[in-house]
Design brief:
By secondary structure, the chain is of the alpha+beta class. The protein is 45% helix and 12% strand.
Length: 164
Protein backbone atom coordinates (compact mmCIF):
# COMPACT_ATOMS: atom_id res chain seq x y z
CA UNK A 1 0.00 0.00 0.00
CA UNK A 2 1.39 3.38 -0.98
CA UNK A 3 2.23 5.90 1.74
CA UNK A 4 -0.31 8.38 0.34
CA UNK A 5 -3.06 5.75 0.68
CA UNK A 6 -1.99 5.13 4.27
CA UNK A 7 -2.05 8.84 5.08
CA UNK A 8 -5.47 9.14 3.42
CA UNK A 9 -6.75 6.24 5.53
CA UNK A 10 -5.46 7.87 8.73
CA UNK A 11 -7.14 11.14 7.75
CA UNK A 12 -10.40 9.29 7.11
CA UNK A 13 -10.33 7.61 10.53
CA UNK A 14 -9.10 10.65 12.48
CA UNK A 15 -12.36 12.62 12.71
CA UNK A 16 -14.53 9.71 13.93
CA UNK A 17 -11.75 8.71 16.36
CA UNK A 18 -11.63 12.25 17.72
CA UNK A 19 -15.43 12.24 18.09
CA UNK A 20 -15.12 9.01 20.08
CA UNK A 21 -12.50 10.67 22.25
CA UNK A 22 -14.78 13.65 22.86
CA UNK A 23 -17.68 11.34 23.78
CA UNK A 24 -15.84 8.71 25.83
CA UNK A 25 -12.30 9.97 26.48
CA UNK A 26 -10.76 7.10 24.49
CA UNK A 27 -7.45 8.29 22.97
CA UNK A 28 -7.94 8.94 19.26
CA UNK A 29 -4.37 7.75 18.64
CA UNK A 30 -5.15 4.29 19.96
CA UNK A 31 -8.46 4.08 18.09
CA UNK A 32 -6.68 4.98 14.84
CA UNK A 33 -3.90 2.45 15.48
CA UNK A 34 -6.46 -0.25 16.29
CA UNK A 35 -8.37 0.55 13.12
CA UNK A 36 -5.18 0.27 11.04
CA UNK A 37 -4.09 -2.97 12.68
CA UNK A 38 -7.42 -4.75 12.87
CA UNK A 39 -8.67 -3.82 9.40
CA UNK A 40 -5.36 -4.05 7.53
CA UNK A 41 -5.56 -0.39 6.56
CA UNK A 42 -9.26 -0.85 5.73
CA UNK A 43 -8.61 -3.70 3.29
CA UNK A 44 -10.04 -6.38 5.63
CA UNK A 45 -13.03 -4.50 7.05
CA UNK A 46 -15.72 -6.97 6.00
CA UNK A 47 -19.16 -5.55 6.72
CA UNK A 48 -17.49 -2.20 7.53
CA UNK A 49 -16.29 -3.76 10.78
CA UNK A 50 -12.94 -2.04 11.25
CA UNK A 51 -12.29 -3.42 14.76
CA UNK A 52 -13.26 -7.08 14.63
CA UNK A 53 -16.26 -6.51 16.92
CA UNK A 54 -17.93 -9.87 17.39
CA UNK A 55 -21.68 -10.30 17.13
CA UNK A 56 -22.07 -12.00 20.49
CA UNK A 57 -25.68 -12.57 21.53
CA UNK A 58 -26.97 -9.32 20.04
CA UNK A 59 -29.65 -9.46 17.37
CA UNK A 60 -27.73 -7.33 14.86
CA UNK A 61 -26.60 -7.65 11.24
CA UNK A 62 -23.44 -9.74 10.95
CA UNK A 63 -20.97 -11.39 8.60
CA UNK A 64 -19.07 -14.62 9.12
CA UNK A 65 -15.42 -14.92 8.28
CA UNK A 66 -12.23 -16.66 9.29
CA UNK A 67 -10.12 -14.91 11.91
CA UNK A 68 -7.04 -15.65 13.97
CA UNK A 69 -7.16 -16.05 17.72
CA UNK A 70 -4.32 -16.83 20.08
CA UNK A 71 -4.81 -19.52 22.70
CA UNK A 72 -1.81 -19.60 25.02
CA UNK A 73 0.52 -18.13 22.36
CA UNK A 74 -0.69 -20.61 19.70
CA UNK A 75 -2.25 -18.89 16.68
CA UNK A 76 -5.44 -20.61 15.58
CA UNK A 77 -7.78 -20.01 12.68
CA UNK A 78 -11.50 -20.03 13.39
CA UNK A 79 -14.74 -18.91 11.80
CA UNK A 80 -16.79 -16.46 13.85
CA UNK A 81 -19.67 -14.00 13.51
CA UNK A 82 -18.80 -10.30 13.42
CA UNK A 83 -21.08 -7.30 13.54
CA UNK A 84 -21.80 -5.53 10.29
CA UNK A 85 -21.98 -1.72 10.08
CA UNK A 86 -23.21 0.79 7.54
CA UNK A 87 -20.04 2.87 7.57
CA UNK A 88 -16.62 3.47 9.07
CA UNK A 89 -18.15 6.13 11.34
CA UNK A 90 -20.76 3.67 12.66
CA UNK A 91 -17.99 1.12 13.32
CA UNK A 92 -15.92 3.68 15.27
CA UNK A 93 -18.99 4.69 17.34
CA UNK A 94 -19.73 1.04 18.15
CA UNK A 95 -16.08 0.51 19.12
CA UNK A 96 -16.21 3.48 21.52
CA UNK A 97 -19.49 2.29 23.04
CA UNK A 98 -18.09 -1.22 23.46
CA UNK A 99 -15.02 0.03 25.31
CA UNK A 100 -16.93 2.54 27.44
CA UNK A 101 -20.00 0.43 28.24
CA UNK A 102 -19.16 -3.22 27.45
CA UNK A 103 -19.95 -5.62 30.29
CA UNK A 104 -18.02 -8.58 31.59
CA UNK A 105 -19.63 -11.87 32.60
CA UNK A 106 -20.38 -10.51 36.08
CA UNK A 107 -22.15 -7.35 34.94
CA UNK A 108 -19.20 -5.04 35.59
CA UNK A 109 -17.62 -2.75 33.03
CA UNK A 110 -15.21 -4.99 31.14
CA UNK A 111 -12.78 -2.23 30.16
CA UNK A 112 -12.96 -0.11 33.34
CA UNK A 113 -9.20 -0.40 33.96
CA UNK A 114 -8.50 0.89 30.44
CA UNK A 115 -11.01 3.71 30.78
CA UNK A 116 -9.26 4.77 34.00
CA UNK A 117 -6.06 5.28 31.97
CA UNK A 118 -7.34 7.33 29.01
CA UNK A 119 -4.93 10.19 29.79
CA UNK A 120 -1.96 8.00 28.79
CA UNK A 121 -2.49 6.29 25.41
CA UNK A 122 0.18 3.63 25.94
CA UNK A 123 -1.07 2.69 29.41
CA UNK A 124 -4.61 2.70 28.02
CA UNK A 125 -3.57 0.25 25.25
CA UNK A 126 -1.87 -2.00 27.80
CA UNK A 127 -4.97 -1.98 30.03
CA UNK A 128 -7.17 -2.85 27.03
CA UNK A 129 -5.03 -5.92 26.43
CA UNK A 130 -5.10 -6.85 30.13
CA UNK A 131 -8.91 -6.56 30.07
CA UNK A 132 -9.04 -9.14 27.28
CA UNK A 133 -9.60 -6.90 24.25
CA UNK A 134 -7.18 -8.89 22.07
CA UNK A 135 -5.76 -12.39 22.21
CA UNK A 136 -2.62 -11.40 20.27
CA UNK A 137 0.34 -11.48 22.69
CA UNK A 138 2.05 -8.72 20.65
CA UNK A 139 -1.03 -6.47 20.43
CA UNK A 140 0.25 -3.63 22.62
CA UNK A 141 3.62 -3.54 20.83
CA UNK A 142 1.90 -3.42 17.45
CA UNK A 143 -0.37 -0.57 18.60
CA UNK A 144 2.57 1.34 20.12
CA UNK A 145 4.64 0.87 16.96
CA UNK A 146 1.85 2.23 14.75
CA UNK A 147 1.33 5.19 17.09
CA UNK A 148 5.02 6.03 16.92
CA UNK A 149 5.56 5.37 13.21
CA UNK A 150 2.61 7.55 12.18
CA UNK A 151 2.80 10.10 15.03
CA UNK A 152 -0.82 9.32 15.92
CA UNK A 153 -0.78 11.11 19.28
CA UNK A 154 -1.07 14.38 17.34
CA UNK A 155 -4.75 13.45 16.93
CA UNK A 156 -5.34 13.16 20.69
CA UNK A 157 -7.35 15.90 22.29
CA UNK A 158 -5.36 17.37 25.15
CA UNK A 159 -7.17 17.87 28.42
CA UNK A 160 -7.54 21.42 29.73
CA UNK A 161 -4.33 22.68 31.21
CA UNK A 162 -2.24 20.01 29.48
CA UNK A 163 0.73 20.96 27.36
CA UNK A 164 1.46 19.52 23.96
Amino acid sequence: MARKEQLDFIAKVAAPAQQSQQKHGIPASVTIAQCILESGWGKKALGNNFFGIKKGKANVPYVEFTTHEFKQTKKLEEVDQFRSFGSLEESVRAHGDLIAFGRDGKGGLRYAAAMAAVDDPLVYALRLKECGYSTDPDYVKKIADLMKQWDLTKFDERSKGATA
